[in-house]
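P.,

For your records, the input lines for the assembly:
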Amino acid sequence: MVLLSFAKLVGRFHPLLVHLPIGILLVAILLKWLSIKPKYQIISIVLPLVFLLGAISAILTCITGYILFVTDDYDAQAIALHQWMGISVAIVSVLLYVKEKWGKLPFIPIKWSLLALFILIMITGHLGGSITHGADYLSSPFKKIFISNQSNEIIQKPIVQVQEAKVYGEIITPLLATKCYACHNANKQKGDFRMDEFGLLLQGGKNGKTIQPGNAANSELLKRMMLPLDDEHHMPPKEKSQLTESQIALIHWWINEGADSSKRVKDLVQPAKLKPILLALQNPNTTNTNIQTIPEKEVAPADEKILKQVQANHIIVIPVAKNSNYLSINFVVDSVIDEKDIQLLLQLKPQLIWLKLAYSNLNDQTLKGIAELSNLTKLDLSNTAITNNGIQYLNALTQLRYLNLVGTHTTSMALLQLTKLTKLKSLYLYKTGVSAKSISAIAALFPGAIIDTGGYKVPIYQADTTELIKPVSNR
Amino acid sequence: MTQQDLHQQRLLREAEQRVIQMNTRRHFIKESAMGLGALALSAFMGSCGTKSTDALGGIAFDPAHPLMPKLPAFAAKAKSIIYLHMAGAPSQLELFDYKPELMKMDGQDCPPSLLAGKRFAFIRGVPKMMGGQAKFAQHGQSGHWISEHLPHLATVADELCFLKAMSTDQFNHSPAQLLMQTGSPRQGRPSLGAWSTYGLGTENQNLPGFVVLTSGGRNPDAGKSIWGSGFLPSVYQGVQCRSEGDPVLFLQDPKGVDRDLRKASIDAINQVNSEEYKQYNDPETLSRISQYEMAFKMQITAPEVMDIQQEPASIHEMYGTQPGKTCFANNVLLARRLVEKGVRFVQLFDWGWDAHGVNSSLSIDIGLVNKCRAIDKPITALILDLKQRGLLEETLVVWGGEFGRTPMMENRDGKANAFKGRDHHTEAFTMWMAGAGIKKGYSFGETDEIGYSAISGKLEHYDLQATILQQLGFDHEKLTYQYQGRPFRLTDTRGKLITEILA
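Structure tokens returned:
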């Protein structure tokens, strides 16, 4: 066992050692080529030494490479060409050394063998790189540059009807592809385990089967995923991207239901716990109740001078995020908003998207100016003196997602005029004049929006009023 | 001239010379020592200078305006946080984690498999199992299990997101509370609130950015360091306020000192401090100046914001407040008022949840029920009140203790306790969050049949902290502070975002 670990250690020096012959032999080729010219003839003295070093390092690299292949899990087929090319490099470099040192072997044409060595090094190096980094290591960024929209990465296709989806083909495969295939594929089979084909996945690895159809709890595949992150047997390895809780649940369910390769979701029993996860696959947006309040299109940065003036007026202005030019403004410190402030805000019109005027001295007149800020997506007018007369101006703010009118003199009459606010997603109407009767009419006007009229009561229950159980000193 | 006069003159001359000597030497040593010290200090405190630390991955820190609002790394879901910490650790088995199997084992000896290799704070020998001491029912569309002890909270079940498999590695209150709030079981690290105000500043410059309110008759076991600023500039520590009497101690001017005199004296102090700053360039001096200015402004704004009497009767009825007293309900209402005025982080500590069963007020069957009654109505009111004001969308409410309680009945030192109680339990406990981009009516993580340990969705405090920072607009791995030659962060080297609960 110790011997094996030692061999493993030696083998793993291969990726390090490999750079020596590449470097030394390339230098040797360059020097040899230069030495042909009379000006550089003096170089010839060192040539045997350089070729000797190159040959020794090439031989050592071949040895460690072979040990790595034997002790680790590599595919013999994928390795074969790299292996023989590497051995050829070593042989050619030894021959060249012999020729340089003793001037023997006249049958070897020096220029051609230099060229051959160069080509061999290039091919061997490239093949080696493909084995460690994957065959598409160079080609995928290359493709991204020159062939846009054509990536060979497996993208999880959106599932239109989750009940009709093939469990293995459309749900499980994409998960395994993104998290497991990198180390368990045709070229690289850690633990002698290939996962990229159904048959091989079921066949298992060097520790036997990893999937017991119908028995997820005893399936090594799942056990490894469930181990603590720090456990050395945990899969995927700690430093790699991990499966999420719901992805593990899906795999668990698929194995428990027999690990079948062709059944559809509707053919399998679906426990209650799994239903939301399955539904989420169908339409990733159904669980996303977030309201998009920041426009996707970027905007030019605001004028620094105006921002300074705004700040000097004790108005709080902050970008909505670090890499965004969109602004958020509130009047939480200075609750007095006047004509001058409005003029300043109007100069920030393209950038200003969130505005909070709660508890300010805003009135219908000043609101008219605010309504010109047509990019606003969030507007908080709560606890201000605005009335129905002011509300009508809001129709200009067609981008609004959030409108807070809590504690204002608004009635349903004015709200029903706001027909242009089609994107509204939340409307707060607590402590307004909106009557309970008209809520359904307002709701019809803003489909999909949350409309909250508040006035919640937390009634006093019998248990609240009964005297608290008296502490007893001893029982 | 007499002999005596001559003598005196000689003495005077000698004294003068001595003074000159002393002065120069002292002066030299003082100046050089300070000079060397300053040199060393600037090297040690790489990030404390007036320069921006963006290059170091930290946050721009302007010592003259330490609390100015700063922009989040990405658009934040939460503008403010109300963190309700139930100090002493509430029992998950009587409140949210319904375990019918445990009830069947009630009164039986604890199986040895649950005790082997484990350490408990007080349980010794073989304790008896104890079923949940409450009736449970499912509530709302989400079907959350909530016990009869929290009937009001059950009505807003669909607003809550439960984390059923929280875990910790500290089974004593102080270290566990420190771990939960500062990310380290030992003192000296900045608290969650301090990190938040360090990263984001606060919108209302007339109020502190991080307010702490306590109830339950005691400060939490870990003391004030759980809302401390650790190695961050001291301006980021939590400001403890009271709901009884002056909201902040010594807020009012002393008798006979009017506003003008107070202003004049603060100007004078700041004058001295700015001279000091010119000489030594210590950024803490600038922070001190700004703190004096904030305190002066706070004298006007704080009493108004913190006066819960200004709320209408209907709101008082909703929260079940007791104006004039120190109680949890008052603190909760105050928290809502503060958040409404732009305070970044409000943290409530309510002591008294440590139901060991040693006396009636610290027992599962009496004390716990009373504690539940004291928080049930106010917390429910808070959620509904934030909701109706449109604030729940941008306010994150977090509820929980520092650890959970054992499924076994505590047998302190091997003997039965006077009342029903449970010991500290680190392996599984329940917390919940609501608002600000967190899934509604969702439950994450599961415990085994008796609620002893997590079987899925196991979380540690680092995961919770990472998620809270995420909602405030930070990548928890990037919110760092350079200290002792390396960047520090709240989640240390751990922390995994709980993406499943994000809406």
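Two observations worth noting. Chain B has a mean pLDDT of 87. The first strand of chain B starts at residue 80 and ends at 87.

Regards
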